[in-house]
Amino acid sequence: MLSPLEEVKSRIDIVELVQSYIRLHKAGINYKANCPFHGEKTPSFFVSPARQIWHCFGCGKGGDAFKFIMEIEGHDFPEALRLLAQRAGVVLKREDPRIRSERNRMYDICEEAAKIFEKSLTLTPAVQAYMKRRGVEEKTSGEFRVGFAPKSWDFLLKALVQKGFKKEEISAAGLAVKSEDKASWYDRFRSRIMFPISDGSGRVVGFSGRIFEQETRDKGQETRMEAKYVNTPSTLIYDKSKVLYGFDRAKQEIRSKNEVVVVEGQMDCVMSHQAGVKNAIAVSGTALTLYQLKIVRRLCDTMVSSFDTDAAGDSATKRSLALASELEFNRRVAVIPSGKDPADAVLENPQNWISAVAEAKPVVDFYFEKAFKENEVLTSQGKKTISSIVLPWIAELSNEIEKSHWIKIFAEKLGVDEDAVQKELVRVNNIPYSAPVVPHEPQKALSRKELLEERLLSLLAVLGEGQRKEVSNSEVVFSTPLGQKIFSSLSLGTKEFAEQGELAKHIELCRFKGEIIAQSVPNVMQEFLLCKKELGKGAVKERLLKLQQEIAEQERRGAEVTSMLKDFQKLAEELKEV
Predict the structure, then answer these.
(1) What Å distances lie between residue 236 and 74, 100, 174, CA to CA?
(2) Which stretches does DSSP call E strand in 357-499?
(3) Which helix or strand (DSSP H or E) is residue 274 part of?
(4) Residue 575 has pLDDT above 80, yes or no
(5) What pLDDT was estimated at residue 271?
């Protein structure tokens, strides 16, 4: 009988798993993509469906499905096991200490809270009627797990305590607040329509609550208006700068369409999906962060931003578009003629929103038209204002031909020489744009010898059995005992492989790497012999350097070095022969 871990591995397909995070392209019997763990323009990230492993030749990271989830989600092994078990439909025993953690407890709390809010909505006709007036169909509401937090101080708190959760845990998950006198606890969300926020794997990590009825509360002489939206604060599992609403539901469509549609709020996202634009995601009242954009960039090349003409100049939106340019997105803008937001446009006529997305304009076109429409081109001040709006967007274009195209059109439309536009563009380019620095774990760079050893083993792994026997007597000294073991095992031939435990995993990885290398070299055997020759030269050079240092040390001490000089001469001749 398979263990839970083995059963999870048997049910998870590595290609399907990785494709839920990044776009993969067929490469022979394997798949390739730009690595999600380091910046690159030429794909060096490969996935093997036959071996159910992945590896990046650029940064050196690789492993199985569990390692991929640990790297891309930032999880430890128990969390990765739990996530993949849910994906595979494998039930893990709750008491198993390997899968328990404070983070997992929070996931449990948020999931139970979502269920409680969902049930509450079904028992509240007034809220159901409101959602119907807003055009949200019952099916859509169910798909997005929209719920309701009643007007009660401790409705959720009591329900979660009854399910065995502690008040401190509920508070840590962002769902309860301790009173100022520290004597009691109360619900963070009260009388609000609840939108569960999920991570990329579909696990509920937080909530956004929209007030259901505008209320005022008296505090002595003070009367204040309730905030329209209340969101979960930062917790161990929720960070608003990293999570995108609807991404778990939209990612497949984003990848298939090679396009993401970014809207401003949860209701916009929900209604967009209902209208059939299912590649929509939402930000929660903030600009997109570089982290969020990098997640989306793994799946698509084009980003469509949606905002009405009054909000087009908003600094947060401009910052999002500027960051998208840093990641070389094709940036487009969807404008609803009526000036309504996507949710209201869908309510009025779904086709309005569908057409706005389909006819989204490239960002330069959008700002170009807007600037000339809103400013007087015949005055010097008008020209200056138009330039300040349009030129920064032209300056961001990475394609020089496209940039030249817009410079020519802009100069003609503005009625000035192209030289003047070019000079102003240089000035704009010299204004530094300060993008946030994203910390990353530095990767240890392999030495040339280590790279050659890795390549040699990979090539040996894909040689035919007869070819391996030809080179089985080769003398190669590796940097590590593991490399020596792999070489010895591979040299024995397929029938005598001692592939057990960790050694088997390393040999499989060598075969995988060898398959990739074999696609780019004309003759695998010749490439193997070339690597072996280079390693031999390197070994002789190391011995020469070491002997040179020893000779220098002996001469410093006044000792006899004649025999050492003869050895040095022999090594030098050997190097020439190699």
Answers:
(1) 12, 14, 10
(2) 361-362
(3) helix 266-275
(4) no
(5) 96
- Which 8-state DSSP code applies to residue 154? S
Instruction: Give the Cα separation of 210 and 149 in Å (integer).
Output: 10
Number of residues that make up the chain: 578
Amino acid at 98: R
For residues 155 and 187, the answer to whether their CB atoms sit within 8 Å is yes
In a domain? residue 442: no
* DSSP-assigned letter for residue 304: E
291 belongs to a structural domain: yes
Which H/E stretch holds residue 211? strand 204-211
Strand partners, 25: 32
Residues 140, 47: one domain?
A: no
Q: What is the spatial distance between Cα 363 and Cα 306, in angstroms, rounded to a whole number? A: 11
How are the residues of the chain apportioned to helix, strand and coil, as percentages rounded to the nearest 5? 50, 15, 35
In contact, 547 and 571? CB cutoff 8 Å: yes
User: Has residue 212 been placed in a domain?
Assistant: yes
Same domain, 456 and 500: yes
- Report the alpha-carbon distance of residue 150 to residue 447 in Å, rounded: 62
Say which residues have a Cβ less than 8 Å from residue 429's Cβ, sequence separation at least 6.
395
**Per-residue tokens: 84:** 């993949």
Residue in this structure with the two tokens 């002789």, named with its chain if needed: 540
On whether residue 242 sits in a domain, the answer given is no
Residue 219: what pLDDT?
Answer: 41
Q: Please name which of 385, 389, 382, 388 lies closest in space to residue 367, comparing C-alpha atoms.
A: 389
pLDDT in tens, 249-305: 999 899 889 999 999 889 999 999 999 999 999 987 667 888 899 889 888 999 998
pTM: 0.69
Pairing mode, if any, of strands 30-33 and 45-48?
A: antiparallel
**Hey, which bits of 15-125 come out as E strands?**
25-27, 30-33, 45-48, 53-56, 62-63
Q: Which two tokens stand for residue 131?
A: 């959602």
User: How do residues 90-104 score in pLDDT, each as one tens digit?
Assistant: 887 654 444 457 888
Alpha carbons 304 and 334: distance in angstroms, whole number: 6
Residue 458: what residue type? S
What are 214's two structure tokens? 């505008």
Is residue 323 within 8 A of residue 288, CB to CB? The reply is yes
Instruction: State the amino acid at position 296 in one-letter form.
Output: V
Q: Which two tokens stand for residue 551?
A: 């000779």
What's residue 94's pLDDT? 58
Q: Find where tokens 């790497």 sit.
A: 513
Q: What is the pLDDT of residue 100?
A: 56
Beta strand extents in 1-138 (DSSP E only): 25-27, 30-33, 45-48, 53-56, 62-63
Of the residues 98, 119, 139, the one at which a domain ends:
98
Quick one: which of 496, 501, 474, 502 has its CA closest to 487? 474
What are the residues whose beta carbons fall under 8 Å from the beta carbon of 86, sequence distance 6 or more?
201, 203
Helix (H, G, I), strand (E, B) or coil at 221: coil
Contacts of 101 (CB under 8 A, 6+ apart): 76, 78, 79
Phi, psi angle pair for 332, to nearest 5°: -135, 160
Total domains in the fold of the chain = 5
- Judgement on whether residues 536 and 564 belong to the same structural domain of the protein: yes
Contact 243, 282 (CB under 8 A): no
**By residue range, what is the domain housing residue 83?**
4-98
CB within 8 Å of 325: residues ≥ 6 apart: 331, 396, 398
Mean predicted lDDT score pLDDT of the chain: 84
